[in-house]
Design brief:
globular, binds zinc ion, alpha/beta
Length: about 1000
């Protein structure tokens, strides 16, 4: 039978899960247990998944599977975010139209239908990605934000907000995306800052009553055609200063920065003195009824610019308020697409942000430009479409989040954040500065804002349900609650009986997703599911959701229930490329998670995402890390299991917990390692420390494969079925089973694959292992660590001396405070050593010589230095030891009492002839490297054994079958082989060994510097 490929295996397991309903069973099993509540943030199904999604989905799945195996009921409802601009933009692109005018020309109804169809464009890809990754989430019963039931719950929430008088309409300057043609909320803006180079301009504003010039400074020259006023601080000191025949007015502290050293100050003035002074505007495209005067404003500073601020009321909140307070005219020269209106004749129809240079040129042409400068700053861009945002005065609906600031902070205090610095840092600071939430969007595809306004008396109604709306409506409600249908619903004003019309906006999609704890269960219209699923024990998303999903959840829940919707938030770092750069399709450095799964398997991708670095920080990621995850953990596990399976098959071993055989130290050790690991992994996982948990399991697997199995090979190979062999099988079976359970949340496929073969049931329906204190043996683990260290030291000597392990050596001496001679056999086999001696110190093998250190001794002993020198060179061993132990020694020399210190001497150690020393801290080993003829001969035989084993493997002889061997060699070679026949038979399953004169078609092999021929056949 062809060996199953990794891809086939994962596919087979997926279809097993499906046909056997393993996911459903894993939930059904825990039906009467405590719930562990988990919220799934809804992705939009009209874009493709990236590696960041793979990280999020892996962590979610690991947590949910782990908690399930721990005995909790973990329901996992999938969700889809279906509304909003990205969908509309996608449809515009698909239809080849752009902007709201073209949408209205195309027709809102067919446009909305297209939106609805396109929402699930990539649903199939998402579904198969989710399945392939092994993420268990209920995609058959997802919540979908476009469903009427979902919308009705959102309406209920908004209705409460309206009742609480926290929903209001305001004409305010908001961040505005000219490309999406809608305003954005502050948390949307916070997601899109980019560093850009812009032009700033210092502009001449000439007084009407004299030739003096106000110098105004702006970082947005494109707003100058909309200038209405100049603002100065009433208490700041300004000066009139002369330069090149012109008189300028600027803040005193900035005069030389702005005008340079050649300026002459003429006089000083309080800002207040300039109130209401009229000036000539830089452009006269628009007649301003009230304006073009200096006004006083407290927010003006002298930290930069000139201390005089240009005011354009449509493009700044401060500007807007200033104009309102002073009763000046409001003008706007920018249309909804972000282009100049026709009144700005020179620039009409052009995108304003592109016109900074043109505006500056026009100023220069009329001698109104004083100075221009390029500067770099952080400027907000649309998080959806990447256009630079404008500040723009529009009518919007706001939720007064600022009134809830204290409550938001208090609710955040009840939450545990991972990593914890986000709580007070990124998130806490955001809450400290919370502003009102602009929730209305002047668009088409979204949850319609459920506010009807009386055309006569202005009374507002925000119906809390479909039924409540029906009562107010003058006609039956449409089946679909979206625009344009809902706009046809006209209500009757309960106050004055006039007609009420719906305000035309749809709401921010973030309000949709923030409502999911309630709306996913159609709360409050249905109660039961919600009661069991609020609040969440955990919410897990990328750090970019701090001001997205994490905030909107907290905001909606605080508005609606007054409490936090979650107990723990896991905020995952961005996944970057291997150089620490953001992954992007345009840069060509983006990894496709689906490709990675197809190449290396889902287990490898999942493991790589967790074991390599903590998920809290930005993660450098590459294909190499996935390859490594596969080779380091998955291949090791698979090879260990194959080894077990092979020999268990040969010996027809069946596991029986009651028959443990006769366990040896090594068995007890590996079980101790297993249970220590279980304890550590559980502790880490209970604290969401995935990386540490993974690393413990990887370390265990390494110990199992590279120490336990390697050290136990002979036991599995041994013929017959001894109690020792039974213990080896039993122990390895136990370890593999428990490792599968440990790994089940992380690498669900291979865990299932192996566990199924060991137990014929799904690992995902088991309980997570618990540590058995009776198996934990700290002393044994520590001792084995020492033994491993001794072996490593021995190997390091062999490497340094170029002595391969196949060459036996006579003796190893170990100097250690502890005598661990009960482990001798392990060390002997690992290092191929005939004898081991344990000694408290290496004293007898190492001699220390002293020489005088003239640098220090010269100064200390002066004229006696030569006497000291000759004393040191012939020093008795006893004296040496005293000096070594006590650090000093007093001697009588030249009839003087002299004190010799360690610092006066240079020490040099020599190891006894034939020995080599290696040390690690307190541990020292000495290897006797002298080779006798017999040792050399044995080395040759061991090499020969290896050669024969390789050959029988190439001949595909089953490992459990005996072979016969014919050898044609010299008498000298025959003598050696016969001398070590027992060694040959212990290592090769061989029946007859025949020495013959010559052989045809045989393998050639150089043995003891001569060629021999050998031929193998099955017995
Ligand atoms: Zn946009
Ligand atoms: Zn009315």
């Amino acid at each position: 039978m062809e060996k199953e490929t990794l891809q086939q295996r994962e596919k087979r397991i997926l279809s097993y899960w499906q046909t056997e309903n393993v996911f459903e069973k894993s939930i059904e099993n825990r039906k009467n247990r405590d719930s562990f509540v988990f919220y799934e943030g809804p992705p939009t199904a009209n874009g493709l998944p990236h590696v960041g999604h793979a990280l999020g989905r892996t962590v979610k799945d690991v947590v949910a599977r782990y908690k399930t195996m721990q005995g909790f009921l973990v329901e996992r409802k999938a969700g889809w975010d279906t509304h909003g601009l990205p969908v509309e933009l996608g449809v515009e692109k698909q239809l080849g139209i752009s902007g709201k005018q073209e949408i209205e020309k195309y027709g809102i109804e067919p446009f909305i239908q297209k939106c609805k169809e396109s929402v699930f464009t990539y649903e199939k890809i998402w579904r198969s990605f989710t399945e392939q990754l092994g993420y268990w989430v209920d995609m058959d019963h997802p919540y979908v934000t476009l469903d009427n039931s979902y919308i009705e719950s959102v309406w209920h929430i908004l209705s409460k907000v309206h009742k609480d008088r926290l929903l209001y309409k305001g004409h305010r300057v908001s961040p505005y995306c000219p490309s999406c043609q809608t305003s954005l909320s502050s948390h949307e803006v916070a997601q899109g800052y980019k560093d850009v180079k812009d032009l700033s301009a210092t502009v001449k504003f000439r007084r009407v009553d004299s030739n003096e010039i106000f110098l105004g400074w702006t970082t947005t020259p494109w707003t100058l055609p909309a200038n209405v006023a100049l603002a100065m601080h009433p208490d700041l000191t300004y000066v009139k200063a002369q330069l090149d025949g012109e008189v300028f007015i600027v803040a005193k502290s900035l005069v030389f920065t702005v005008l340079g050293e050649n300026a002459t100050i003429l006089s000083e003035h309080q800002g207040a003195e300039f109130a209401q002074v009229a000036y000539k505007p830089p452009f006269d495209y628009i007649a301003v009824e009230h304006g073009h005067v200096v006004v006083m404003a407290e927010y003006v500073t002298e930290t930069s610019g000139t201390g005089i601020v240009h005011i354009a009321p449509a493009h700044g909140e401060d500007d807007y308020q200033t104009v309102k307070e002073h009763g000046l005219s409001f003008i706007n020269v920018v249309d909804l697409r972000g282009c100049y209106t026709n009144e700005i004749t020179d620039l009409a129809g052009r995108f304003v942000k592109d016109c900074d240079v043109d505006v500056i040129k026009l100023l220069a042409a009329s001698n109104l430009l004083f100075h221009k400068e390029k500067y770099e700053h952080s400027y907000p861009h649309c998080w959806r479409c990447d256009s630079p945002l404008l500040y723009y005065a529009t009518d919007s609906w706001f939720i007064q989040m600022s009134a809830l600031k204290e409550q938001l902070l208090a609710n955040n205090n009840t939450v545990t954040w991972y990593p914890d610095h986000i709580k007070e840092g990124r998130f806490g600071k955001f809450l400290e500065n919370v502003v009102d939430w602009n929730i209305s969007r002047n668009r088409y595809w979204g949850t319609p804002l459920n506010v009807w306004v009386c055309t006569d008396c202005g009374h507002e109604e925000a119906p809390e349900s479909i039924a409540a709306l029906s009562l107010l409506a003058q006609q039956p409600l449409p089946d679909d609650l979206h625009k344009p249908y809902i706009d046809d619903v006209v209500c009757t004003c309960p106050q004055c009986h006039a007609t009420m019309r719906r305000t035309p906006e749809v709401i921010d999609v973030w309000f949709d997703s923030g409502s999911m704890p309630f709306a996913q269960h159609h709360y409050p219209f249905e109660q039961e599911a919600f009661q069991k699923q609020f609040p969440a024990d955990v919410v897990i998303e990328g750090i970019d959701q701090t001001r997205g999903f994490f905030y909107s959840l907290l905001a909606v829940s605080t508005l609606y229930k007054g409490q936090a919707p979650y107990k723990n938030v896991l905020s995952l770092g961005h996944v970057l490329d291997e150089h620490g750069q953001k992954m992007s399709k345009s840069k060509g450095n983006a990894l496709d998670p689906i490709d990675l799964i197809n190449s290396y398997g889902a287990d490898a991708l999942r493991w790589a995402l967790l074991v390599d670095s903590s998920p809290w920080n930005p993660k450098r990621f590459s294909t190499k890390i996935v390859q490594e995850a596969k080779s380091k953990l998955l291949d090791t596990l698979e090879n260990t299991f194959s080894f077990y399976q092979l020999y268990a098959g040969i010996d027809q071993f069946t596991f029986d917990a009651a028959q443990q055989g006769t366990p040896i130290l090594l068995d007890k050790w590996v079980l101790a390692r297993l249970h220590t690991t279980i304890a550590k992994v559980t502790t880490h996982m209970d604290d969401y420390q995935f990386t540490q948990g993974c690393r413990e399991i990887a370390k265990l697997m390494d110990d199992v494969s590279n120490w336990y199995v390697r050290r136990s090979r002979q036991r599995f190979w041994a013929s017959g079925f001894s109690e020792d062999k039974r213990a080896a099988f039993n122990t390895l079976h136990t370890v593999l089973s428990e490792v599968c359970k440990l790994l089940a949340p992380f690498t669900p496929f291979i865990a299932e694959h192996i566990y199924m073969q060991l137990h014929n049931e799904s690992v995902h329906l088991q309980d997570y292992p618990t540590a058995d204190a009776a198996c934990i043996n700290v002393k044994l683990e520590e001792e084995m660590t020492t033994i491993v260290k001794i072996v490593e030291l021995g190997r390091s000597i062999r490497n340094a001396k170029n002595l391969k392990v196949k060459q036996p050596l006579a003796e190893l001496i170990i100097a250690s405070a502890q005598n661990l001679s009960n482990y001798n056999r392990i060390i002997q086999e690992e290092l191929n050593i005939k004898q081991i001696q344990w000694l408290p110190s290496t004293e007898a093998f190492v001699e220390t010589h002293f020489k005088l250190n003239f640098k220090t001794a010269g100064a200390a002993f002066g004229k006696h230095v030569n006497a000291v020198k000759s004393y040191v060179e012939t020093m008795a061993t006893e004296d040496k030891n005293t000096l070594l132990c006590e650090g000093q020694l007093t001697v009588q020399l030249d009839e003087q009492s002299l004190t010799l210190e360690h610092a006066h001497l240079l020490t040099e150690s020599t190891v006894k002839d034939g020995y080599e020393l290696a040390e690690d801290g307190k541990l020292q080993v000495l290897l006797y490297t002298h080779l006798t003829d017999s040792l050399i001969a044995e080395g040759h035989v061991r090499d020969f054994i290896r050669f024969v084993q390789d050959q029988r493997k190439q001949l595909n002889y089953p490992i459990e079958k005996y072979i016969d061997m014919q050898i044609a060699c010299s008498s000298q070679q025959q003598m050696i082989l016969q001398q070590f026949e027992a060694l040959l038979r212990a290592n090769i399953l061989v029946q007859d060994i025949q020495f013959v004169a010559s052989l045809n078609n045989a393998f050639c092999y150089t043995f003891a510097q001569e060629e021999l021929q050998v031929s193998l056949s099955l017995n």
